[in-house]
Amino acid sequence: MTRPLHPTALVTGANRGIGKAIAAGLKARGCLVTLGARDAAAGRAEAAAMGVGFARIDLQEPESYFEAVTQAGGFDILVNNAGVLKDVSLLDRGSDFDVAMEVMVHAPLDLIRLNTPHWRASGWGRIVNLSSGWGSHAEGLQGPGAYGVAKAALNALTRALVRDLPPGVKVNACDPGWVATRMGGADAPLSAEEGADTPLWLALLPEYGPTGGFYRKRQPAAW
Protein backbone atom coordinates (compact mmCIF):
# COMPACT_ATOMS: atom_id res chain seq x y z
CA MET A 1 0.00 0.00 0.00
CA THR A 2 1.14 3.56 -0.63
CA ARG A 3 1.50 6.18 2.07
CA PRO A 4 -1.71 8.05 2.95
CA LEU A 5 -1.88 11.59 1.62
CA HIS A 6 -2.00 12.96 5.19
CA PRO A 7 -0.72 10.25 7.55
CA THR A 8 -1.82 10.42 11.16
CA ALA A 9 1.06 10.48 13.63
CA LEU A 10 1.51 10.13 17.38
CA VAL A 11 4.70 11.45 18.98
CA THR A 12 5.21 10.70 22.67
CA GLY A 13 7.02 13.15 24.94
CA ALA A 14 6.47 15.86 22.36
CA ASN A 15 5.86 19.01 24.39
CA ARG A 16 9.55 19.92 24.30
CA GLY A 17 12.94 18.96 22.90
CA ILE A 18 13.39 16.42 20.13
CA GLY A 19 9.80 15.24 20.37
CA LYS A 20 8.50 18.75 19.79
CA ALA A 21 10.81 19.16 16.79
CA ILE A 22 9.65 15.83 15.36
CA ALA A 23 5.99 16.78 15.81
CA ALA A 24 6.58 20.13 14.10
CA GLY A 25 8.50 18.46 11.28
CA LEU A 26 5.77 15.91 10.66
CA LYS A 27 3.13 18.64 10.58
CA ALA A 28 5.23 20.61 8.08
CA ARG A 29 5.31 17.49 5.90
CA GLY A 30 1.54 17.18 5.77
CA CYS A 31 0.88 14.77 8.64
CA LEU A 32 -2.03 15.02 11.05
CA VAL A 33 -0.09 15.05 14.29
CA THR A 34 -1.11 14.23 17.83
CA LEU A 35 1.29 15.54 20.45
CA GLY A 36 1.53 13.15 23.39
CA ALA A 37 2.70 14.47 26.75
CA ARG A 38 2.45 13.54 30.42
CA ASP A 39 2.01 17.15 31.55
CA ALA A 40 -1.49 18.01 30.33
CA ALA A 41 -1.20 21.78 30.73
CA ALA A 42 2.16 22.05 28.99
CA GLY A 43 1.13 19.59 26.31
CA ARG A 44 -2.14 21.32 25.47
CA ALA A 45 -0.43 24.70 25.34
CA GLU A 46 2.29 23.44 23.00
CA ALA A 47 -0.19 21.58 20.80
CA ALA A 48 -2.35 24.69 20.48
CA ALA A 49 0.67 26.83 19.59
CA MET A 50 1.76 24.29 17.01
CA GLY A 51 -1.71 23.69 15.59
CA VAL A 52 -1.79 19.95 16.24
CA GLY A 53 -3.86 17.56 18.32
CA PHE A 54 -3.10 16.62 21.91
CA ALA A 55 -3.39 13.48 24.01
CA ARG A 56 -2.34 13.15 27.62
CA ILE A 57 -0.04 10.14 27.62
CA ASP A 58 1.83 9.00 30.71
CA LEU A 59 3.77 5.90 29.76
CA GLN A 60 3.58 4.69 33.36
CA GLU A 61 -0.23 4.79 33.09
CA PRO A 62 -1.27 2.30 30.39
CA GLU A 63 -4.88 3.47 30.52
CA SER A 64 -3.78 6.90 29.27
CA TYR A 65 -2.25 5.66 26.05
CA PHE A 66 -4.87 2.95 25.59
CA GLU A 67 -7.50 5.69 25.56
CA ALA A 68 -5.48 7.88 23.17
CA VAL A 69 -5.00 5.13 20.60
CA THR A 70 -8.47 3.62 20.79
CA GLN A 71 -10.18 7.03 20.51
CA ALA A 72 -8.10 7.83 17.43
CA GLY A 73 -8.64 4.42 15.90
CA GLY A 74 -4.87 3.98 15.58
CA PHE A 75 -2.12 6.05 13.98
CA ASP A 76 -0.22 5.58 10.73
CA ILE A 77 3.05 6.78 12.28
CA LEU A 78 4.17 6.06 15.84
CA VAL A 79 7.22 7.85 17.22
CA ASN A 80 8.29 6.42 20.57
CA ASN A 81 10.26 9.43 21.75
CA ALA A 82 9.57 9.80 25.49
CA GLY A 83 12.39 8.79 27.80
CA VAL A 84 13.72 9.06 31.34
CA LEU A 85 17.28 9.48 32.60
CA LYS A 86 18.44 9.20 36.20
CA ASP A 87 22.03 9.21 37.43
CA VAL A 88 21.91 6.37 39.94
CA SER A 89 23.65 3.00 40.17
CA LEU A 90 21.77 -0.05 38.95
CA LEU A 91 22.69 -1.63 42.29
CA ASP A 92 21.27 1.22 44.34
CA ARG A 93 18.03 0.73 46.23
CA GLY A 94 16.67 3.75 44.34
CA SER A 95 17.59 2.35 40.91
CA ASP A 96 15.53 3.60 37.99
CA PHE A 97 15.54 0.20 36.28
CA ASP A 98 11.81 -0.51 36.57
CA VAL A 99 10.77 2.97 35.45
CA ALA A 100 13.27 3.03 32.57
CA MET A 101 12.07 -0.32 31.26
CA GLU A 102 8.42 0.69 31.62
CA VAL A 103 8.81 4.00 29.79
CA MET A 104 11.31 3.01 27.11
CA VAL A 105 10.50 -0.66 26.41
CA HIS A 106 7.19 -1.91 27.81
CA ALA A 107 5.07 1.11 26.89
CA PRO A 108 6.48 1.41 23.34
CA LEU A 109 5.64 -2.26 22.78
CA ASP A 110 2.14 -1.71 24.18
CA LEU A 111 1.65 1.23 21.80
CA ILE A 112 2.79 -0.90 18.87
CA ARG A 113 0.38 -3.67 19.86
CA LEU A 114 -2.50 -1.19 20.16
CA ASN A 115 -1.76 0.25 16.72
CA THR A 116 -1.32 -3.10 14.95
CA PRO A 117 -5.01 -3.61 14.03
CA HIS A 118 -4.97 -0.23 12.26
CA TRP A 119 -1.79 -1.10 10.38
CA ARG A 120 -3.12 -4.50 9.43
CA ALA A 121 -6.24 -2.88 7.97
CA SER A 122 -4.44 -0.03 6.18
CA GLY A 123 -1.38 -1.91 4.95
CA TRP A 124 0.94 1.02 5.75
CA GLY A 125 2.71 2.10 8.93
CA ARG A 126 5.95 3.49 10.29
CA ILE A 127 7.42 3.05 13.77
CA VAL A 128 10.36 5.13 14.95
CA ASN A 129 11.99 4.20 18.25
CA LEU A 130 14.18 6.96 19.68
CA SER A 131 17.24 5.17 20.97
CA SER A 132 20.77 6.32 21.79
CA GLY A 133 24.42 5.55 21.23
CA TRP A 134 24.39 4.74 24.94
CA GLY A 135 22.19 1.76 24.07
CA SER A 136 24.77 0.37 21.64
CA HIS A 137 26.73 -2.74 22.67
CA ALA A 138 29.39 -1.68 20.19
CA GLU A 139 29.82 1.57 22.10
CA GLY A 140 29.87 -0.09 25.51
CA LEU A 141 26.39 0.65 26.89
CA GLN A 142 27.35 4.03 28.26
CA GLY A 143 25.32 6.47 30.31
CA PRO A 144 24.04 6.53 33.88
CA GLY A 145 21.54 4.26 35.56
CA ALA A 146 19.32 2.02 33.50
CA TYR A 147 19.15 4.33 30.49
CA GLY A 148 21.60 2.44 28.27
CA VAL A 149 20.16 -0.94 29.29
CA ALA A 150 16.63 0.17 28.39
CA LYS A 151 17.77 1.63 25.06
CA ALA A 152 19.62 -1.60 24.25
CA ALA A 153 16.40 -3.49 24.96
CA LEU A 154 14.50 -1.07 22.71
CA ASN A 155 17.04 -1.75 19.97
CA ALA A 156 16.54 -5.50 20.40
CA LEU A 157 12.78 -5.01 20.25
CA THR A 158 13.20 -3.05 17.01
CA ARG A 159 15.08 -5.93 15.39
CA ALA A 160 12.73 -8.63 16.64
CA LEU A 161 9.47 -6.89 15.65
CA VAL A 162 10.26 -7.14 11.95
CA ARG A 163 9.15 -10.76 11.94
CA ASP A 164 5.78 -10.02 13.58
CA LEU A 165 4.56 -6.74 12.09
CA PRO A 166 1.98 -6.73 9.28
CA PRO A 167 3.18 -6.22 5.70
CA GLY A 168 3.74 -2.59 4.83
CA VAL A 169 4.87 -1.61 8.33
CA LYS A 170 8.47 -0.57 8.92
CA VAL A 171 10.15 -0.25 12.31
CA ASN A 172 13.51 1.37 12.93
CA ALA A 173 15.49 2.81 15.83
CA CYS A 174 17.72 5.85 15.71
CA ASP A 175 20.30 7.76 17.70
CA PRO A 176 19.52 11.47 17.32
CA GLY A 177 22.93 12.41 18.68
CA TRP A 178 23.82 14.68 21.59
CA VAL A 179 21.08 17.29 21.46
CA ALA A 180 20.65 20.46 23.50
CA THR A 181 17.50 19.54 25.42
CA ARG A 182 16.65 19.38 29.10
CA MET A 183 18.01 15.83 29.11
CA GLY A 184 21.02 16.52 26.86
CA GLY A 185 22.05 19.76 28.53
CA ALA A 186 22.97 23.18 27.20
CA ASP A 187 26.49 22.12 26.12
CA ALA A 188 25.22 19.62 23.52
CA PRO A 189 26.34 20.51 19.97
CA LEU A 190 23.09 19.72 18.13
CA SER A 191 19.80 21.57 18.07
CA ALA A 192 16.50 19.76 18.55
CA GLU A 193 15.77 20.27 14.85
CA GLU A 194 19.06 18.65 13.90
CA GLY A 195 18.32 15.75 16.23
CA ALA A 196 14.90 15.35 14.63
CA ASP A 197 16.25 14.91 11.10
CA THR A 198 16.83 11.13 11.19
CA PRO A 199 13.57 10.35 13.05
CA LEU A 200 11.64 12.37 10.47
CA TRP A 201 13.37 10.54 7.64
CA LEU A 202 12.47 7.18 9.18
CA ALA A 203 8.87 8.23 9.87
CA LEU A 204 8.23 8.85 6.18
CA LEU A 205 10.32 6.14 4.53
CA PRO A 206 9.20 5.05 1.07
CA GLU A 207 8.17 1.48 0.35
CA TYR A 208 11.73 0.49 -0.56
CA GLY A 209 13.14 1.96 2.67
CA PRO A 210 14.85 -0.11 5.36
CA THR A 211 13.28 -1.83 8.34
CA GLY A 212 14.70 -3.37 11.49
CA GLY A 213 17.71 -1.05 11.55
CA PHE A 214 19.51 1.36 13.85
CA TYR A 215 20.45 4.72 12.31
CA ARG A 216 22.47 7.83 13.07
CA LYS A 217 22.56 10.76 10.64
CA ARG A 218 20.52 8.64 8.22
CA GLN A 219 23.29 6.02 8.13
CA PRO A 220 23.39 2.55 9.73
CA ALA A 221 24.84 2.59 13.25
CA ALA A 222 26.48 -0.27 15.11
CA TRP A 223 24.23 -2.22 17.45
Question: What labels describe this entry?
Answer:
single chain, 223 residues, alpha/beta, eight-stranded mixed β-sheet, globular
**So how many helices?**
7
Record field, number of beta strands: 8
The level of helicity is: 25-40%
Radius of gyration: 16 Å
Uncertain regions spanning at least 5 consecutive residues: none
Mean pLDDT: 95
Distance between the termini: 30 Å
Query: What's the helix-strand series?
Result: EHEHEHEHEHEHHEE
Using the alpha-carbon principal axes, give the shape. Answer: globular
Query: Pairing-aware structural class of the strands and helices?
Result: alpha/beta
Largest sheet: 8 strands, mixed
Strand order, largest beta sheet? 3-2-1-4-5-6-7-8
SS strand fraction: 15-25%
